[in-house]
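Troubleshooting: if your tokenizer reports a length mismatch, compare your output against this known-good record of 226 residues.
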Amino acid sequence: MKSIAVVEDELFMREELSDLLRKGGYEVKEITEFSDVTGQLLLCSPDLILLDLNLPGVSGFQICRELKQKSSVPVLVLTSRDQMRDELHALELGADEYLTKPCRGERLLARVANVMKRYEGRSNLLEGAGFLLDRQTYTLYIDNRSVILPKNQGRILEALMSHGEDVATKEELCVAIWGTTEFIDENALQVNLTRLKKTMAGLGMRRQIVPVRGVGYRLTEEGGAL
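Known-good structure output:
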């Protein structure tokens, strides 16, 4: 059974949506605490997220941005905000669908089914800025091209993408490549990083790997040491 996480702070609306989705044949996971929403969603790993924009604390826009940096989970925005600029901003951040309240139940279920269908077979894909990475085969899709990365390069890129804008430590990268930090020469990590950087530069990728002194590495739009 496919699962859907409902991120809605208004109790009556959340219960109504959850009931509709359960009747539609979905397992529902309700987010009721609105601190570290992104972390909760990544932990419960739903097949789709139904996301309101007006939330206590962090906005739905920020949650959408963080999710799309760290996961390929589809996001359907359901909100009372009916301004075109809000819809365009949500879509720019990676939202897969945008609906405004009030919305007929039949329409919502149809949009949910449509988004689910589009994502069939994409659970292994990580989305980056203008590219996709298949976590099983380490195939990189960019500009209508596909390149199979060597395993170590693929593992490094997967680890960096999983951290989003955050820093991946040297230890985390070593574990990603070799499964351990013991008896690993740091030069070996540098060799693999250098090879991946050359591959990414050759493909004209917007994202670059930059060092964060004393900590590790992260992906960013602009190169340069920090």
